[in-house]
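Worked example

This section walks through a single chain of length 319. The input is the sequence exactly as stored; nothing has been trimmed or padded.
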Amino acid sequence: MKAIRQYEFGAADTLRYEDAPDPRPGPGQVRIAVRASGVHLIDTAIRRGAVPPTLPLPALPMTPGREVAGVVDALGAEVDPGWLGASVIAHLGFQHSGGYAELAVADVAALHRKPDRLDFPQAVAMMGTGRMTMNVLNRARITEQDVVLVTSAAGGMGSLLVQAARYERALAIGVAGGPEKKQLVKDLGADFAIDYKAEEIPAEPAPTIVLDAVGGSVGRAAFERLAPGGRHLIYGWTAGSPTEFTSAEMFQRGLSVEYVLGGGIPPAALLREWEEQAMAFAASGRVTPVVTLVPLSEAAEAHRALENGQVVGKLVLTC
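Given that input, the structure is written out below as tokens.
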């Protein structure tokens, strides 16, 4: 099979497209003929060897990638024969790799059957990215009375959050960087689309909820626009630093701030619950994942594009 192999931590050039032995499933496992592999920003951190303390570095050499969608083509011992030929999605686990390849092995307990409404790239977009989106939405509890501001609104999670806010009939404000991303936010149905590189976030309508993956000056500007009693949910800081605020500001304006991600890996049962919610959410048509497709052979270039903020939606490698 063809796969992406990594022999040292470092820049995107450490990702090599080459021949590798076909993997074989062990007991309780299946092999998946991969059609789509999800790429996440954490993948770039793993590649550099710069993971958070809660995530151990993988052993080298390795094949990166933790999210796959494809067709089961081989079964290990003690696996229900009904899985053979099934179209599935799986998260291979935080401490596992092997997704950037034409063939990948997954535990049968990690499998979900692909919803008919989704193609393989869309389905893989609802795995790691989708389940974290459900975590954010479960915390946000959006209602039609809310004004929801989403930073990184053209990203994998952000694009889903904008659609979810509109589904709940909330007023949605999407903040993104550049005219192409601004247009995507409009196309997703946002009531207001803001290009933070060219314009300021307006003071009105004041958001009651901020869903913030950017931090830095963009996150701070969103925080300053929050209506009294508003909530600021932080689930990342692609700007390099979290949104800054003081407890005095929170007290004076009656605001609340919550860090949605962090504190280690959630329990497996909870992750599974979020995955099931994400698949059902997309299968029902409430959201449609936005994807950027790149051939598996161009994984290094895909990593560069993601790190440089040049990707819209979820980045997916295709075989």
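What to look for: The chain has two domains: 2-126+290-318, 130-259.
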